[in-house]
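Here is one chain, start to finish.
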Amino acid sequence: MNNRQAGLALLNIGFNNMVVEERIIAIVSAAPSPIKRLKDEAQKAGRLVDATNGRKTRSVIVTDSNHVVLSSIEPETLTARARNENPAAGEREED
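Its structure:
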């Protein structure tokens, strides 16, 4: 029985770290300046979760609890995983 059958949909965000899909508000690229400010504010408030294992941050996940989760997986790959699709051909897996 997988997580979806059990009623709890978990999204693998890399290195066997999971986020509950229903709690996700947005998955965005880490590059834009407003997102960098969002990360800084979350860190100061104690709401930042770094799941990159020291790798480059490629995605920022915002949850309904106002937590900010950093991932080293591209936003497109995370979106495909959430939709149960295969990642784009040639996409590097980081985990």
